[in-house]
Amino acid sequence: MSDLLYSEVEEDLRASVRDLLTDRAGFTSVLARTESAEPYDLKLWRTLAADLGLAGLAVPEELGGQGASYREVAVVLEELGRSVAPVPFLGSAVLATAALLAAGDTELLPRLAGGELIGALAVPLTTAPDAGFPGGVSANTEGALSGSVRTVADASVADVLVVPAVGPDGPGLYAVEKAGATVTEVVSLDLTRRLADVSFDNASSRLLTSGPGVESALRQALLVGAGLLASEQVGVAQWCLDETVAYLKQRYQFGRPVGSFQALKHRLADLYLEIVSARATARYAADTLATGDSDVPVAVAVAQSTCSAVALHAAEESVQLHGGIGMTWEHPAHLYLKRAKSSELALGTPGRHRAALAGLVNLPPA
Amino acid sequence: MSTLTADDLRARVGELLAAHPPASTDRLEFLRARFDAGLAWVHYPAGLGGLDAPRELQNVVEAELAKAGAPDNNPRRIGIGLGMAAPTILRFGTDEQKQRYLRPLWTGEEVWCQLFSEPGAGSDLAALGTRAVRDGDEWVVNGQKVWTSVAHIARFAILVTRTDPDVPKHQGMTYFICDMTDPGVEVRPLRQLTGEAEFNEVFLSGVRIPDANRLGAVGEGWKVAQTTLMNERVAIGGNAIPREGGLIGMVSKTWRDRPELRTPELHDRLLKLWVQAEAARLAGTRLRQQLAVGAPGPEGSAMKLAFANLQQALTGLEIELSGEDGLRYDDWTLRRPEKVDMLGRGPGYRYLRAKGNSIEGGTSEVLRNIISERVLGLPSEPRVDKDVAWKDLPR
Ligand SMILES: Cc1cc2nc3c(=O)[nH]c(=O)nc-3n(C[C@H](O)[C@H](O)[C@H](O)COP(=O)(O)OP(=O)(O)OC[C@H]3O[C@@H](n4cnc5c(N)ncnc54)[C@H](O)[C@@H]3O)c2cc1C
C-alpha cells in the first residue's frame, strides 16, 4: 500500500513554503492585488519557482529540475491552497510542465523548471482528463496554428503556451511563444487564479510531439493536474476549517462563545471528518502519480470527486459561520469560496469524475 | 519496541506451522501455540501473546497464516474482548491478571462482554448507578446493566460501578472484572429491531467480586473506562481491507449482476457511495500508518463516525436496489446470535442492524462533541453537573 503520510522532507518543505507565504502572501496583500493592475505576484512566483526551485520539483535533475516527485508538488499545492497566493503555479509548474514531460520535451522543460519561463497549457481549465483531444486549434503543413481556446488558466502571464492542435497528420502538441498568440484576459470568478481566452492566427509554433502517443500525453498532463489540484483543495478546506474554528472560539453571542453551541460544533466535526477523508484521497492520488502506479486514473477520480466537494463545503460553511463579516469583501473567506467553486469545475467536475470512475471500476450506467 | 522485521516474523510463523501443522493440529491447540509464540497480537509484550513488534507487522502474520490455512480465533465473535477488555487489562491490570486473562481471551475460550450502559446512563456513562460496596476482601455489587452484547455467551465482563456517591460523578467510579457465572448475575435476552436478541439486560444482585479483580485504583474507574472507550472506537473499522471490501463490494456486485435493477438515480448514489467507501478506506489506511509510526492522530473518532454514516447509506441503497426482494426479510425468529453477521444475512437485516452503528460505542452525536471539543478545541457546553455530588444529580 502507498505511503499516505507526509515524510520529514515533505514537512520541511511545507514549513519553508508556509513561512514564505505568510510573509509575502498575507491576505490583505492578496486582496489588494486582486484590484490592482498586477493581479499576479510575479516576484513571489520567482522566489518560489527559481530561488526555492519549486517550479521544477518533479522534473528530473538532468532536465534542470529537482528530481523530487509529485508527492512534494502536492505539498506545495496544499500550502498555495491555504494562502490562495496569486501565482501561476498550477498552470505553469503543474499543467504545462506535466504536458512537456509527457511529450518528452527537453528544450523548454529546463527553462520552465528553473522558473525562467512561465508556461500554460492551452485547454479550457474545465477540461477533464478523459475529455478527448480538443479540436479548436488547427495546424497547417508549416506548423502555423489557427483557432482559439477559451478560459485558459494562467495564460495571461505565460511566456509560452503548450497547445494541443490538430494538424494534417492528426493531433499534436505545439509550443507557441507569447508573441504569437492573442491573449485576452477575462473576468474570472476566482480572483486569485486568472483566466484568459487565447487565439492564434497563423501563429508560428514548434511541434513538441505528435503521433500515436500524443493523446495519452495530454491525458497524462490532465490527470496530473486533476490529481494534484486535489491537494490544493485540501489546503483550501483546511484553511476554511481552521479560520472558522478560531473565529467561533472568540465570537460571543448569547453570553457564550458561539463555538460552544452544539448545532455549530457538529457541523464543524462533520467538516473535519470530510477533510480527513479528502486528505487521504489526495495523498493517495499524489503517491500513485509519483510512483506511476497503474491505479492513477481511479485514484485521481476518487480524489477529485471527493476534494472538490469538500473544499466547496468548507468554504461555504466558512462564509455562513462567519455571519455578516463572512459576507464582506474585507474578510478573506470569499477568496476561498471563489477558489473552491472555480476549482470544483476545474479539470473535471465531481460528477464527471464519478462518471469516469463508473467505466474504470465496472459500474456501468443504467 | 523490538527491531523485528517482516522477514523475522515470516520465519517465526514458519516455525509455528512446522511444529503445529494446521491440517493435523486441534484448532484450540493451534491457537494456544500461536499465542505462546508471540504471534497473537505482535505489538503486545513478549509472554503475553506478542513480541513488542510494530503493530503494522500483524498484517504479515495474518497473511502468512491465511496462506497456510491456519484457523483463526473468530475475531468477530470475541470482538469486545479483543478490542476493549484486552487493551484495558494490558494497561491497568496486575501481572497476575494479565497472565490469567489474556490467553483464553485471545483464543476465544473465554468470551467477554461489556457491562457499562445502564437504563439511566448511556451517553452519559459517568452517571451510572450500579453500586459496589466494599466488604473485606470483596465488593458487593447491585444494579442493572442494559444493551449488553453477547452477555449470554460471555464468561467474563468488564464492569464499571459506583463506589462513592458523595463525590461528583466522574470521581466515584471503580472498574472491575466480573465473572458472569457468579451467583447473582442474571442475563435476560433483549430483542432488538432486527428480531434477534444480540444484546441483553443484565441484573446484578448481591454479586461478590474479589478485590483482586479490580482494574485500576478505587475511584479511578472513569480513567480506566476512557481507555476502553478510546480503544473501542479505534477497533471499529480498524482493519486493513481491500478496495470494495465489505458492503460496498456486495452492492457493487449486485449492480454488475442485475442490470434490470439499474436506474440513473441509483447509479448516481452508488458512485457517490463507492467514492465515499474508497475515501474512508484510504483514511483508515492513513490512520493505521500513523499508529504504526507512533503518531496516533485524533482521526480515530472520526473513522467510527464515517463508518456509521457509510454503512447506513449503503444498506439503505442496497434495499432499494433489491427491487421486489427489498420488501422481503430473511428471518424474524428470535435468536441469540454469537456475533453480528452483516454479510451473511439479507439486505433487510443489514439495513436494520446498521442503525445500531451510530448508537453503539458512542452515538454519532457524542462523537461529534468529542471531535469538536478535543480535536478542534471548541468550548464545551455549560456543564450543570460538574461539581455536584452524584447522589444529588437530577435523574
Ligand atoms: C447494538 C448495540 C449494542 C450495544 N452493546 C453494548 C454493550 O455491549 N455494552 C454496553 O455497555 N453498551 C452497549 N450498547 C449501548 C450503547 O453504548 C448506548 O446505547 C449508547 O452509548 C447510547 O446511550 P443511550 O442508548 O442511553 O442513549 P441516550 O444517551 O439516552 O441518547 C439518546 C439520544 O440523545 C443523544 N444525546 C445524548 N447525549 C447527548 C449530548 N450530550 N449531545 C447531543 N446528543 C446527545 C444521543 O446521541 C441519542 O441520539 C449497545 C448499543 C447498541 C445499539
From TrEMBL, chain B:
- Identify the cofactor(s): FAD
Query: Which of UniProt's keywords are assigned here?
Result: FAD, Flavoprotein, Oxidoreductase
Which SUPFAM superfamilies does the record cross-reference, listed alphabetically? Acyl-CoA dehydrogenase C-terminal domain-like, Acyl-CoA dehydrogenase NM domain-like
A GO cellular component annotation in the UniProt record: plasma membrane
- State the family it belongs to: Belongs to the acyl-CoA dehydrogenase family.
User: Is Plastid found in the keyword set?
Assistant: no
| GO terms assigned for molecular function | flavin adenine dinucleotide binding; oxidoreductase activity, acting on the CH-CH group of donors
Q: Which residues form the Acyl-CoA oxidase/dehydrogenase middle domain?
A: 113-197
- Acyl-CoA dehydrogenase/oxidase C-terminal domain residues: 219-376
UniProt-listed Pfam families? Acyl-CoA_dh_1 (PF00441), Acyl-CoA_dh_M (PF02770), Acyl-CoA_dh_N (PF02771)
**Entry protein name:** Alkylation response protein AidB-like acyl-CoA dehydrogenase
Can the keyword Flavoprotein be found in this entry's annotation? yes
Fetch the InterPro entries from UniProt. Answer: Acyl-CoA_Oxase/DH_mid-dom, Acyl-CoA_Oxase/DH_mid-dom_sf, AcylCo_DH-like_C, AcylCo_DH/oxidase_C, AcylCoA_DH/ox_N, AcylCoA_DH/ox_N_sf, AcylCoA_DH/oxidase_NM_dom_sf, Mycobact_Acyl-CoA_DH
User: Which segments constitute the Acyl-CoA dehydrogenase/oxidase N-terminal domain?
Assistant: 29-109
